[in-house]
Amino acid sequence: MRKRIAAMILASVLVLAALPLCAWVDEPREGDVSQGSANGVDVAVSEEGEAALASGASFAFDDFSRAQKGSNRDVDGTYIGYAYYQGASDDYLVAVAVEGGVIVRIPQQATDFIDTKDPDDLSLVQSYLIALDSAAVNGGVVLSDEVPWTFTTGQSVEQDGIVYSFGVSAGEERYYVTVMGADGSDIVADTNNEARPEYVDFAHVVDPSAVNIVPPATGLAAFGEFLANLDWSPLWVTLKTTGVAIVFIFILGLAAAYFSLRIPKRAQDIADTIFTIPMVLPPTVCGFVLLLALGNNSPVGRWFIDHGFSLVFSWPATVIAAVVVAFPLMYRSARGAFEGIDPTMLDAARTLGWSNGRIFFRLMLPLAWSSIAAGTVLAFARALGEFGATLFLAGNYAGITRTIPIAIYFEWMGGDMDTALFWTCVVIVFSFLVILFINLWSKRTTKYRRQAIEE
């Protein structure tokens, strides 16, 4: 009995403590601050991240969206503030994330579902917003119940000299959330930039029966669903690009290394510098130079356009970018191997009447094969991971030029950490297997070639 009485007293104290935290702004521009915290209720979020529902709740959220940035806006020549597009109606619940707090505007239409005097309803609003915001931005800055929350049903609220207005009409079916100084000043000016909101969330408050959330899959079922919904085109583009590029890299690297040793010494130094420089330049510089050389305004680019094909921002451009940045690795490895061959062996082969071609394929390649294989591995890895030059020259077109490194970057930028992590693991595993295969194959072939030479 004593435990029950103690529990009732503790519950009463907690309710009384929570009531002062929920002050309301019933009239525009009065802006009383209310504090709230999420009540730990389990919130189910839809797979697309647009709806949220808690078991037994009297309302749900739907049509959730997040506006990361706004813009200064004028209406009929009058400055209305730094504005975020709200939608075609004024019935959205709005959450403005500011530095050190959150401002929530509950529209009049939503008061049919939300009791604005009930702390539990306010905590549920917090829970919905935090859950939806966390699902919308995987790994980014999200709403928190550890900062002060301001709730209002009015059209505007003022805090610290900043006025936040909701449902500001800018013409037929165009409504904005606007922020400006109390004196009408621009909050994004250099002297007051810290007052700009971090982002704004929007959601419709609906009856729970209007939301149907299917429980998410777990374990292997979730992974299978992830794979089924994954866009696999970056993998095919990467394999196709790297496979074609490594053929060109191998042939051009060996040819450049061989012929650079057969020209005068001064010319060798110049050729070596030209062939090696893409290795030391940043990939973005290589991409920009290629864009200037092969773009639509260059003679080469115009020639391709005149023949019905634009070279830049096409799949061949991904191959060109990969070849240019990975070629020096193959060239340097092959040239170093060729320079390490004993010249007397080559002279002896010539005295036996061997042609240059036979010397190259029957003598130089077997002796230099270990270094050539290592160069091939390095060039393959470099081509597989190429990002900067490809993005400059070929762009980011799904199914055409979007390779795995580009997909990782843009998925991460879009907040899809799961997809970015998956492609990262694919690159690591694939690179490991290919390098292991080439190393084992190179070791085996080198052993046989060495035995053949000894015989």
From TrEMBL:
Q: Which CDD domains match?
A: TM_PBP2
Whether Membrane counts among this entry's keywords is yes
Compartment(s) where it occurs, according to its Swiss-Prot or TrEMBL record: Cell membrane
Q: Which residues cross the membrane?
A: 243-261, 273-293, 313-331, 359-381, 420-441
Q: Where is the ABC transmembrane type-1 domain?
A: 235-438
Query: What are the entry keywords?
Result: Cell membrane, Membrane, Molybdenum, Signal, Transmembrane, Transmembrane helix, Transport
Signal peptide boundaries: 1-23
* Record InterPro entries: MetI-like (IPR000515), MetI-like_sf (IPR035906), ModB_ABC (IPR011867)
The way this protein sits in the membrane is described as: Multi-pass membrane protein
Record's Gene Ontology CC terms? plasma membrane
The Gene Ontology terms for molecular function here are: molybdate ion transmembrane transporter activity
Could you tell me what this protein is called?
Answer: Molybdate ABC transporter permease subunit
